[in-house]
Large ribosomal subunit protein bL21
Amino acid sequence: MVYAIVRAGGHQEKVSVGDIITVNRMKGEAGDSVDLDLVLHVDGDTVTHDAEALADMTVTAEIVSELRGPKIVIQKYKNKTGYKKRQGHRQDLTRLKITGIK
């Protein structure tokens, strides 16, 4: 089995060819091709983690769509002072399809 650990959108993800992953927003339009940075490459019994060897390898992905994550509610409260604050956040995300590990 061939898979790789890549750094994408501030996180590390385990990917194989054909996987669809969701990462933090990346620049590009739907259908564009993106190269991802490798951290580790596994091909059967061969494990590669040397930076020089990984520089020659590439993981390519195609941008499928852009979406927004679930709403996170942030609430602050201080007792006996009447202070209340409510804030919401939705993270911008990009969905990628892994097209090749070489």
User: Anything to note?
Assistant: Residues 2-101 form one domain. The two ends are 14 Å apart (CA to CA). The mean pLDDT is 96.
